[in-house]
Amino acid sequence: MSQQGYVATPPYSQSQPGIGLSPPHYGHYGDPSHAGSPPGMMKPAGPLGAAAPGGMLPQGPSPPGPQQFGQNGAHAQGHPPQRFPGPPPVNSAAPSYAPYSPSTQSSYPSPASTASVTQMASQLNAMHINSYGSGMAPPGQGPPGPPSAPLFQGLPRPPQPSIMQPGSQVLPPPPTALNGPGASPLPPSTHRQDGLPGPAPLNAQYQPPPLPGQTLGTGYSPQQGSYGPQMAGGQLSYPGGFPGGPAQLAGPPQLQKKLDPDSIPSPIQVIENDRATRGGQVYATNSRGQVPPLVTTDCVIQDQGNASPRYIRCTTYCFPCTSDMAKQAQIPLAAVIKPFATIPSNETPLYLVNHGENGPVRCNRCKAYMCPFMQFIEGGRRYQCGFCNCVNDVPPFYFQHLDHIGRRLDHYEKPELSLGSYEYVATLDYCRKNKPPNPPAFIFMIDVSYSNIKNGLVKLICEELKTVLEKLPKEEQEETSAIRVGFITYNKVLHFFNVKSNLAQPQMMVVTDVGEVFVPLLDGFLVNYQESQSVIHNLLDQIPEMFADSNENETVFAPVIQAGMEALKAADCPGKLFIFHSSLPTAEAPGKLKNRDDKKLINTDKEKILFQPQTNVYDSLAKDCVAHGCCVTLFLFPSQYVDVASLGLVPQLTGGTLYKYNNFQMHMDSQQFLNDLRNDIEKKIGFDAIMRIRTSTGFRATDFFGGIFMNNTTDVEMAAIDCDKAVTVEFKHDDKLAEDSGALIQCAVLYTTIGGQRRLRIHNLSLNCSSQLADLYKSCETDALINFFAKSAFKAVLHQPLKVIREILVNQTAHMLACYRKNCASPSAASQLILPDSMKVLPVYMNCLLKNCVLLSRPEISTDERAYQRQLVMTMGVADSQLFFYPQLLPIHTLDVKSTALPTAIRCSESRLSEEGIFLLANGLNMFLWLGVSSPPELIQGIFNVPSFAHINTDMTTLPEVGNPYSQTLRMIISIIQQKRPYSMKLTIVKQREQPEMVFRQFLVEDKGLYGGSSYVDFLCCVHKEICQLLN
Ligand SMILES: [Zn+2]
Q1: I want to staple 532 with a disulfide (CB 3.0 to 4.6 A). Which of 501, 594, 871, 910 is the partner?
Q2: What is the 310 CA–ligand 1 centroid distance (Å)?
């Protein structure tokens, strides 16, 4: 195989029409053995599968009907001015219906292609080492462009016709010359203008952050000896594999930065530009294929026929017409759907449509729900489905005349005709056993083993429950919550409590047979909180005392979930388990776990094992939970390895949330935990849900990522789904798409409300289609792309070596950009890096993803932490993944105390800090307040009420209320950042040049990682080289 050989290496050697790049992996990583449901995951038909044949599940495509019937082209023309224009009309001339047929082609890479990618990657590695280490120019590289070639500046520059495209950005050539033999060694990049401490030399005296290190909030393993020695290994695979380790750690003088960081695309600039142009405005969803404002831009969204971007965001708002085009560009076609997203109070909540016993109006063939994409014809007697083109009779109760443009007279009176999102009241057909559901129940399950009693956790939980139970969620029109509550404590046995309102004292029943858990009481276990309040308070007061003398260290875990699920099943209601757990469940019982953490697996093909559950007990438990609408939320308080990969599986697959507090200490961590608990109990949530994605002809949903469970290829089952959970859906072509009819998506979620009502929530979105690649690139959204890439990669870590996954990500990034360069940009010097405007910051975000601890094979990071972060990301929406991968870093010393606006963020790099400054960093899980050694004393006084830097106590996790403008403004900023985020962020105070700074620096994601992972500049150069290779 040729060493020159990117293009010469299979599978790239078979050139495709157009660009000569063929997609080896097109966004897929899975293990072929998982292409279908593994046998162990099979389960009986879901809640609606058998019970509701006429329900949500479609009955398969019927033979092509008279879809060409009823030409309505006339209707589609010339809309007069309206209150607001509706979505574009459906064009009935769309291609005739093609029945869905499961693709027979495996979407997974064959072993052969994996091997070739691996091989290719090792060549790449060699190439990188050459170019970065010894300064050899990459093969095939053209001469560098003029140094004055348009650089990325802080502000957009006027287009420079020779090399810039409208909507493109151009970067100077990769560092051939700078990096070349002639390049003089520049001062080590350890030089910092801002006077940060010199770098810790390799093998230096940096000790790990003070452990309880994990009290710093990031959970890196305490076992690490020191940071230095691990850096020395140069055997890391790309992209962490730059020899010599991070730039900040000295060693031999590094070759200097090849590019001025100010000259490369800045995420902050992109965010600020979008804010400046679109912030504070009304964004109306009235046109097809509109790219919404960025998730970081605040605006008011008005539903005018397409779902708000709060509910659905797409990787691109213009789909390529053909699968060849899609393969050529390799841009994933995906939607990130957050069906229960929180809507701000200044936007309209969803309308509820009630057709009584008739139920929702649906297409006879594809079962799509009535929506703005249905075209009424024949005077309103029939309508043509926008999804499958079938012509349906309008049911008599639903008949309405059409106006002169073919629109129903009640168009604006019916949410389902004019809005992108709305809800339907579901009829009994949509309920289990055709019976209205019972309201859900919450069961609180507390681990009362020795350590939890000893450290006061049990007491804290019990105290808090007395308060939060007052705030159980309720339907708006109801006075009290319909949710019933129950209580269980456990160590190696289970204790059920009878808290029936007429009891003077709660009663305990012990279940010692954890092998086959049964529910010892039905009456009195699940109760209305208000009615049983005194008995419940009595119980919560007694629990800490009851187990005060217990020496029981061992716990069970699977039987706890089993017990909760059985209790819900017995009560015939869906619900949520809140489990408070601390240790590896080693007691003899189903789901017993052993410590199998093995750092030796890291960086081997077996590393994936660390992310897989160690027993299939949890898999089948999750399956049962989903089948019974039992969602599991887990609060973990580990002080050592607890096997998050196993314990977290049920929460993940049941739509629950996993919270983790390493080395929980009452005075440091209780606030964070209590905030999480309150927030979780109060949040909006739907139970016993099934989501179904329908699409117009020519493409379909093929892959789903999230806290979901699937028994077949189409029904996304969720025991529950709350306002913070998103499901990412990938689409593939199965035919051509037509430019005029576009690509339509309908997401329907059938669920039970907190009040026990069965409903359907519908979100519709219309996208454009184009046969021009440039249109596709113009309509991309990088934040959604990163969400998709993160989830697909994190799903793949269960099956594939991490090295392969990282390589696929890098390759795909290069392919996407190379295809743009080749097909959309105007001719320019081969050495210029040209990025589409919509993907300007794709490289920096992609690098952040590659550096995330899940994908970074490093022993310094605990296995549990990696499993935890993997799981969190799998359910994230776009706003949360954006912040998680590229943290927000705010200069606090420039605070304008008279303004309520947040200061403008700065880029996440050490070079942006200054020793006179104070900076706040947040990523959605952690928050840091970093104080430069020369921070202004008046600010320190203002914030901390102490006279100097030296007096600041870094043990605090909340700022004191000092009662001056600095303090008030900073505290307000912190609460604004915290708002809307699903996890409470623990605040860590970091003083410059003190050890905890090491933890903080990991979040400076544009720099080289402490544990490997390249800097943004280096990564951009690598991507550029790959693009050059591809284009050669
Ligand atoms: Zn249809």
Answers
A1: 501
A2: 26
Q: What is the DSSP letter of 105?
A: S
How many whole angstroms from 311 Cα to the centroid of ligand 1? Answer: 23
3-class DSSP state for residue 919?
strand
Alpha-carbon distances of 985 from 119, 462, 638, 726, rounded to whole Å:
42, 22, 18, 20
DSSP character for 1010?
B
Question: 409 alpha carbon to ligand 1 midpoint, in Å?
Answer: 23
- Dist CA 982 CA 990 (whole Å): 24
Measure 721 CA to ligand 1 centroid, in angstroms.
27
759 membership: H or E segment, kind and range = strand 758-770
CA of 27 to the centre of ligand 1 (A): 29
CA of 426 to the centre of ligand 1 (A): 19
CB count within 10 Å of CB 468 equals 18
- CA 24 to ligand 1 centroid distance, Å: 34
73 class by beta-carbon count within 10 Å (0-12 exposed, 13-18 middle, 19+ buried): exposed
Give 336 Cα–ligand 1 centroid separation in angstroms.
23
How far apart CA 99 and CA 798 sit, in angstroms, is 33
CA-CA distance, 474 to 440, in Å (whole number)? 11
| Residue 143 CA, distance from chain mean position | 41
Q: Is the separation of the CB atoms in 444 and 485 below 8 Å? A: yes
pLDDT, tens digit (0-9, with 9 covering 90-100), for 206-234? 333 333 333 333 333 333 322 222 322 22
- Considering only CA atoms, which of 841, 840, 821, 823 is closest in space to residue 831? 821
503 alpha carbon – ligand 1 mean position (Å): 56
List pLDDT tens digits, range 295-318: 999 999 999 999 999 999 999 999
**Ligand 1 centroid from CA 388, angstroms:** 4
Ligand 1 geometric centre to CA of 706 (Å): 27
The C-alpha atoms of residue 447 and residue 358 are separated, in whole angstroms, by: 48
* CB contact set of 392 (below 8 Å; sequence gap of 6+): 363, 364, 365, 382, 383, 384, 385
The answer to whether the beta carbons of residues 310 and 684 sit under 8 Å apart is no
Q: 170 CA to middle of ligand 1, Å?
A: 45
- How many of the other CB atoms lie within 10 Å of CB of 390? 21
Say how many Å lie between the CA of residue 385 and the centre of ligand 1: 5
Enter the DSSP assignment of 351: P
- Measured between alpha carbons, how far is 253 from 985 in angstroms, rounded to an integer? 38
Other beta carbons within 10 angstroms of residue 489's beta carbon come to 26
Cα–ligand 1 centroid distance for 374 (angstroms)? 9
Determine the average pLDDT of the residues in 138-147: 34
For 873, residues 6+ apart whose C-beta sits below 8 A from its C-beta are: 790, 791, 794, 852, 854, 881, 884
What are φ and ψ of residue 607, in 5° steps?
Answer: -55, -30
d(CA 363, CA 385): 6
Centroid of ligand 1 to alpha carbon of 384 (angstroms):
8
3-state secondary structure of 980: coil
> How many angstroms separate the alpha carbon of residue 748 from the centre of ligand 1?
14
Please tell me what DSSP assigns to residue 362: B
Question: Ligand 1: distance of its center to the CA of 365 in Å?
Answer: 5
CA distance 791 to 599: 24
Measured in Å, residue 338 CA sits from the centre of ligand 1 at 24
390 C-alpha to ligand 1 centroid (Å): 5
Q: For 410-452, how does the pLDDT look when each residue is reduced to its tens digit (9 = 90+)?
A: 999 999 999 999 999 999 999 999 999 999 999 999 999 999 9
Rounded to the nearest whole angstrom, what is the distance from the C-alpha of residue 362 to the centroid of ligand 1?
8
Q: Position 849: which residue type?
A: L
Q: What is the pLDDT of residues 618-677, one digit of tens each?
A: 999 999 999 999 999 999 999 999 999 999 999 999 999 999 999 999 999 999 999 999
pLDDT digits (tens, 9 = 90+) for 151-203: 333 333 333 333 333 345 555 554 433 333 333 333 333 333 333 333 333 33
